[in-house]
Amino acid sequence: MLLLQCARGRATNQRYHIHELAEFSVEGGYLIDGFPSTGHTSAIASASLINAMGFTPVATIDSDRFPPVSMVQDSRPFHPTRIFADSKLKVAVFSSYLALPPQEHKPMARMMLKWARERKAEWIVSSVAVGSQIPEGKIMAVGSTEEARKKISGASMEVMGSGMITGIPGALLNHGAIGGQNVIVVLYNPAHEGADYRSGALLCTAMSRLVPGTACDIDALQAEAEKAERAMREAETESGEGILKRGMYG
Questions:
Q1: Which of 34, 132, 133, 140 is nearest to 85 (CA)?
Q2: CATH assignment of the domain containing 203
Q3: Which DSSP letter does residue 100 get?
Q4: Residue 28 DSSP label
Q5: Does 141 fall in a domain?
Q6: Nearest residue to 214 via CA among 84, 119, 63
Q7: Running DSSP on this structure, what letter comes out for residue 168?
Q8: What total of structural domains would you count in the chain?
């Protein structure tokens, strides 16, 4: 059983430790899953949203199952997996430079769902590359509930009729469907692996259509893609565990 306490300070469950750095609220709002998937496009799109909107880091996520990696920027160390939020927009983003191994996908999805329930977030938005299941350059989505599917259609996006979703996004959909949690997973076909800023721009734009008040800095997205790619490769190299593997989710 996962046990998660979201009081400010150290929150723990059996796998993950959330250390909250600031007070924030996402009641009635959105949780965005920004863990990397195939080609890192999901993480790049989430990073673009964070930077364009000026989201604030409000918590870190750690686990004994994560490699011992510290990222350094502007001479300051920080955790590779953090939560960013904007209380006015009621949006939080789980952002990570680490792609989790398959055995962590279901536990992380369950933790996100429990966190969303306790924070009273109404929506969870995730994304994943699905390769040849959809044409290159096209965006589709799938929802866990009828309300989620209506929201996808209302955003002028096509609802996927059939296919297979794997990894954290797949687990979020399954648990969301069973528990009545609104989950939307945006689907894309990346042009190539790596810093695919074109797919990142499409994905970021699609996510901003689903999450009111958010926007993407498309002009800066290529530089963001290249920076994120470097950081993720450094995390993989320094961890010595090859935790960032291409094709992890898709």
A1: 34
A2: 3.40.50.10900
A3: P
A4: T
A5: yes
A6: 84
A7: H
A8: 1
189 CB neighbour count, 10 Å cutoff? 20
Residue 123 in any domain: the answer is yes
Rounded to two decimals, the pTM is: 0.84
Q: Which tokens is 202 given?
A: 């499409």
* 69-109 confidence digits (pLDDT tens): 888 888 999 999 999 999 999 999 999 988 888 999 999 99
pLDDT in tens, 155-214: 999 999 999 999 999 999 999 999 999 999 999 887 655 556 777 888 889 999 999 999
The DSSP symbol for 99 reads P
> Do the beta carbons of residue 49 and residue 55 sit within 8 Å?
yes
Structure tokens at 185: 């997973």
Domain membership flag for residue 168? yes
Which backbone phi and psi does 127 adopt, to 5 degrees?
Answer: -160, 155
Decide if 76 is inside a domain: no
Where do the H-state alpha helices sit in the chain? 41-53, 105-118, 146-154, 167-179, 197-210, 218-239
Instruction: Report d(CA 246, CA 161) in Å as an integer.
Output: 26
Please tell me the total number of residues recorded for the chain in this structure.
Answer: 250
- From 125, 142, 113, 95, select the one nearest 32 (Cα to Cα): 125
Q: Give Dmax over CA atoms of the chain in angstroms.
A: 48
Question: Left (φ > 0), alpha (ψ -120 to 50) or beta: where does 75 sit?
Answer: left
* SS3 assignment, position 143: strand
Spatial contact of 10 and 22, defined as CB atoms under 8 Å apart: no
- Cβ atoms within 10 A of the Cβ of 1, count? 5
Given a contact cutoff of 8 angstroms between Cβ atoms, the answer to whether 167 and 37 are in contact is yes
Alpha-helix runs per DSSP H in 66-166: 105-118, 146-154
